Amino acid sequence: MESGVKFLLVSSEGQETAGAPKSLTFFFFFFHCLPTKRAARTQGEKKKTAPRTNCKVTRRARREMSMNADLGKPRELTGLQQRRALYQPELPPCLEGKAIRVEFGDSTTTIDPTCANMVAQEFPNTFGQPLVHFLKPNKMDAQANDEHPPIRVGVVFSGRQSPGGHNVIWGIYDAMKTQNLQSVLLGFIGGTEGLFANQTLEITDDALSAYRNQGGFDFLGRTVDQIHTTEQVNAAMSTCCDLDLDGLVIIGGVTSNSDAAQLAETFANHNCKTKVVGVPVSLNGDLKNQFVETTVGFDTVCKVNSQLISNVCLDAISAGKYYHFVRVMGWKASHVALECALQSQPNMVILGEEVAFSKLTLKEIISKICDGVQARAAQEKYHGVLLISEGLIESIPEMFALIQEINILHSNKVPENNIPSQLSPWATALYNYLPPFIRRELLLHQDSDNSAQLSQIDTEQLLAHLVEAEMNKRMKEGKYVGRKFSSVCHFFGYQARGSLPSNFDCDYAYVLGHICMHILAAGLNGYMAFATNLKEPTNKWRCAAVPLTAMMSVKRHSRSPGAVPTGKPVIHPSPVDLQGKAYALLREKASSFLLDDFYRTPGGIQFDESGANVKPITLTVEDQDYLGDIELLQDYLEKVRNIVKPGCSREILKAAISSMSSVKDVLKVMSAPFYAELPLFNLN
Ligand SMILES: O=P(O)(O)OC[C@H]1O[C@](O)(CO)[C@@H](O)[C@@H]1O
């Protein structure tokens, strides 16, 4: 341990974790050292069949769909909202005109080649489709087409609210109307339940006017982020057929986009003409991979949370008497917590990924927090801010096992009250050790993907409670001689989720909306819209579409390399990369964060003038090198060819190969012919 604040990764058996990067120390232990009013959208009438224009959702339908009866009621926009409604997002040059060039790459496989056969079997109609790029046509471009037939598209908010979602709809609408004024865009009212029950609203300029660049999903509302039971899929298909839709756009995160892939496959199988497209919209920032750099809403949520955390830091240092335990939303992955930590620099940060990696028990976590509190007390500091991710609770090995047992009992339809008596003996012991409020929260009914409701489990309160008990114990035993430990707890989730979107999220969502329309106009099915080069200004973004199946994998029950993948292929949330630059930066600053109170004040989101460009994008996105682009890959491959010449030394070959390893991964997914060349260089 380095000055008591850093330590080597140790497994629960007390051994140094095999394969772990030796230098990886626990970061958390630093601890870290219009103006038009909304009346417009209430026009229309309820309908199930043609004429397919506007529809009004009756009170009864709203009740049946468990929808809020206030959805769609006129509301007054504040001055700031009115100004935001006038903001015009920028488009990259390829999306500016009426014509576009669609370029097809080679066929794709999947992000994890060991699962390719399983994905291919499960998705015979939609697996292996090519990556697609949208480019600005040349003057002489024969492929570029100015004439476009009208199309009919439906759009649904499937995933949880995320700032910027409304702009996806606006982007689809503008792109459709630019190509053909006769095209029709229908929004499903009440999210997926509106899709199943065929409740639509025709999107018009008027209806959109109060929702451009606004937060929330209240234009159409949302219900459950789930389209996967047979009844749900059939209901969705019957609605799309009834409405004679050419396309269906599904807005959401990993679960919604996995469902989109399933819908696309089923529709193709049943010769349903509707093509399905997914858009990565989620505050969690966990739908990221070789193709997708970030999700819509992540930027805003990180900015709002960072402001709140930094306010708490300043309050803490001013009074000098409380430890603040802050949990931020972000579901299973800790991208939001990592970004907010870099932006606001609290004293301690605990990411779920680092706990899972080192298999730290709850007791060990508490003991390390207490060590941090004691180290600060030695400097006469009796305040501090601890940041944790929402998914931390599931990352603690014994808590994970307990949650799994509860999940299985839930899936077997055991009533909530009977679950405790059916737990295994060791799980019962752990369950009984936990404070009553956590026990209650762990038993809550499951989330739509059959996992625990992470937002409802007050992990920050659990930690505060256990840390206080341990500090009191240390005091009694004479091991701690400072002031009495005192804590305040916060959960920052919904506060940020409903925020006005940042300029970045407004632009990103609007651009993705345009790309969705181009995917559908090209007749593609089972794709996700994505844009790359996001750290550059919008005019340098590249626009593309990736088959949803290319991002799928199948979970292995064991982590050993030979373990066979089991279960259904889905798009999994990507965890924080513990080898990545952003995490390395956090680790590097850990000890000074813990002891030196290097609080940072990023302030609120700036929309206008110079402030708007001070921090245009999150650090975690800025720090990544993305390769989801065929031109870039060609460029890399060219470099490999230049370095690796016949007869060159083994060292040169090895160096070239290691620097190209991530390229190899991308090539495997994107371009079989390119990849075929690489084994020539394989020295392993
Ligand atoms: O609105 P709900 O059901 O509380 O959803 C909470 C969940 O949704 C998210 O905000 C987005 O996926 C998660 O971070 C969180 O666990």
Automatic annotation (TrEMBL):
Listed GO MF terms: 6-phosphofructokinase activity; ATP binding; diphosphate-fructose-6-phosphate 1-phosphotransferase activity; metal ion binding
Pfam families, alphabetized: PFK
Phosphofructokinase domain sequence ranges: 152-519
Pathway listed: Carbohydrate degradation; glycolysis; D-glyceraldehyde 3-phosphate and glycerone phosphate from D-glucose: step 3/4
GO cellular component: cytosol
Gene Ontology biological process terms from the UniProt entry: photosynthesis; response to glucose
Regulation of activity: Allosterically activated by fructose 2,6-bisphosphate.
Subcellular location: Cytoplasm
Xref: InterPro entries: PfpB_PPi_PFK, Phosphofructokinase_dom, PKF_sf
Alphabetized UniProt keyword annotations: Allosteric enzyme, Cytoplasm, Glycolysis, Kinase, Magnesium, Metal-binding, Transferase
Subunit-structure text: Tetramer of two alpha (regulatory) and two beta (catalytic) chains.
Family, similarity comment: Belongs to the phosphofructokinase type A (PFKA) family. PPi-dependent PFK group II subfamily. Clade 'Long' sub-subfamily.
Function statement: Regulatory subunit of pyrophosphate--fructose 6-phosphate 1-phosphotransferase.
HAMAP family: Phosphofructokinase_II_Long
Protein's UniProt name: Pyrophosphate--fructose 6-phosphate 1-phosphotransferase subunit alpha
Native organism: Oryza glumipatula
